[in-house]
């Protein structure tokens, strides 16, 4: 018997909580400064506004196929995705090797990096504490969508 694996963007049940992207979200334009901010020592910089930044436009490519999910766990910290972050997931993007995906494995939802080379399909965590997810006979993989961004909040 062959292992049942599918990279088709089927419609498994939505993981909770699910929020679709607003199709007519109000503009949220904030100033975007010309100068980049170094993460080392401060640099004297002129603070001239380059343009306005609308986070809806920046994070969402296809409003009708984009959804938001809250992350639970620490398996993707190496990809700067942390517990409590908000993921932006686009269902219209064809999943490819190296993409971070929202996957459904035997009706369980997870976020991992897709490994698909030479006929081998695995899902890899971005934390060395977690082993890759390898598939066995009768396992079913459905890639629900591709993660296109993450939003983090810092404790302040």
Explain this structure.
The structure is a single chain. The protein is mainly beta and 156 residues long. It has two domains: 1-22 and 64-156, Umud Fragment, subunit A (Ribbon), CATH 2.10.109; 26-59, no CATH class. The protein is 3% helix and 37% strand. It has an eight-stranded antiparallel β-sheet, with no helix packed on it. The protein has a two-stranded antiparallel sheet with strand order 2-3. The model is unreliable at 1-14 (pLDDT under 50).
Beta-strand percent range: 35-45%
Average pLDDT for all residues: 80
**Can you name the CATH architecture of the largest domain?**
Ribbon
Low-confidence regions: 1-14
Helix count equals: 1
What spatial form do the alpha-carbon principal axes imply?
Answer: globular
CATH topology name of the largest domain, in short, is Umud Fragment, subunit A
Rg computed from alpha carbons, rounded to a whole number of angstroms: 18 Å
Q: What is the CATH homologous superfamily assignment of the largest domain?
A: Umud Fragment, subunit A
Largest sheet properties: 8 strands, antiparallel
Structural category is mainly beta
Beta strand count: 10
| Helical percentage | under 10%
State the separation between the terminal residues, measured CA to CA. Answer: 54 Å
Number of domains: 2
Order of strands in the sheet with the most strands? Answer: 1-4-5-10-6-7-8-9
Q: So what's the CATH class of the largest domain?
A: Mainly Beta
- The protein's oligomeric status is single chain
């Amino acid at each position: 018997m062959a292992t049942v694996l599918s990279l088709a963007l089927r419609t498994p049940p939505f993981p909770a909580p699910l929020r679709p992207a607003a199709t007519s979200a109000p503009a949220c334009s904030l100033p975007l400064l010309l100068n980049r901010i170094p993460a080392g020592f401060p640099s004297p910089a002129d603070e001239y506004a380059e343009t306005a930044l609308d986070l809806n436009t920046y994070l969402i490519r296809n409003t009708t196929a984009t959804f938001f999910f809250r992350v639970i766990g620490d398996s993707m910290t190496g990809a700067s995705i942390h517990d409590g972050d908000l993921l932006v997931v686009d269902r219209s993007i064809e999943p490819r090797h190296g993409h971070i995906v929202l996957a459904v494995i035997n009706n369980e939802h997870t976020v991992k990096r897709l490994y698909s080379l030479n006929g081998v399909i695995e899902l890899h965590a971005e934390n060395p504490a977690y082993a890759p997810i390898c598939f066995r006979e009768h396992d079913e993989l459905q890639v629900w969508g591709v993660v296109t961004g993450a939003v983090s909040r810092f404790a302040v």
